[in-house]
Amino acid sequence: MTVWQWIVANWPSIAVVALFVIVCIVLWKLGYKKRVKHMLYVLVAEAEQKFGSKTGEIKYAYVVERIYRYLPAILRVFFSEKEIGEYIDEAVQQLKALLDTGADLLTYEDERLIGHK
Q1: Using CA atoms, how far apart are residues 34 and 6, in angstroms rounded to an integer?
Q2: pLDDT, tens only, 41-97
Q3: In degrees, to the nearest 5, what angle opens at C-alpha 94 toward C-alphas 57 and 29?
Q4: Which residue, of 28, 66, 92, 100, has the fewest CB within 10 Å?
């Protein structure tokens, strides 16, 4: 029996296993999405404190470099550069809204997360 014949003979089982794997990956990624977004927010706030205004490209590069340093290698596969860029844009908008209210950029826990305390 050739590989192709085996695949044709067992396609329903292969399809079920593939679907199960895809569902597991999607659910796993959704679980980490919130954590990645929070980490990006913290890094955006840190970059804002560190570099100030009118340094958008420097801050963006800083955040991208740091998030890829913190993310485990397996997670890097599931979060594309485009996706990370979109999450950074969301974090920037959240930060702008927060700054308009005059609130603190980072909480104590956020600062511990990035190693400042």
Answers
A1: 41
A2: 889 988 888 888 788 889 999 999 999 888 878 777 778 889 899 999 999 998 888
A3: 85
A4: 100
Tokens of 4: 């192709």
Cβ-contact 44, 59 below 8 angstroms: yes
In whole angstroms, what is the distance from residue 117 CA to residue 109 CA? 9
Reported pTM? 0.66
The amino acid occupying position 21 is: V
Structure token digits, residue 77: 């596969």
Report whether 41 contacts 109 (CB < 8 A): no
**Please, what is the end-to-end C-alpha distance for the chain in angstroms?**
63
51, 59 Cβ separation under 8 angstroms: yes
- Burial of residue 88 (CB within 10 Å: 0-12, 13-18, 19+) is buried
Q: Which residues contact 28 (CB under 8 A, 6 or more apart)?
A: 78
